[in-house]
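Ticket #4471: structure export looks truncated?
Reporter: QA, pipeline team
Priority: medium

Steps to reproduce: submit the single chain below to the structure queue and open the exported record.
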Amino acid sequence: MEIDKKIIKKLIESLEELKKTLNKSGEQLDTTETSKSEDVVEVENSKSVKSPIIGTAYLAPEPGAKPFVEVGKKIKKGDTVMIVEAMKTMNHIPSPHNGIIKKITVQDGQPVEYDQVLVLVE
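Actual output as written to the record:
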């Protein structure tokens, strides 16, 4: 299979134009990868706990059990906020800081993506 260089060049040009239109100021978007290892990012006076992996989110340790966290509950750094199951492995997601649960953004049994916001903490 031979690759047509004209098609590749046209594709690259189209992507560059798309980058320019996505940035409102007209400047080139920064395409350098930022540190994705951060689990917390500021969001309107609260911090978000993000999923470190792709998987299925579970709010309780087992079906029918009490959830790890609830809205309004006070948590400490290191407390488990939920479990994300990937490939039959249950990964406990710890809170990276102290605070009060403001919002739980996923439902029990919902598939989650890498870097998706799971919980908002004040």
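Status: closed, not a bug. The export was complete when the record was re-opened. Leaving a note from the reviewer for reference: The helical segments are 5-22.
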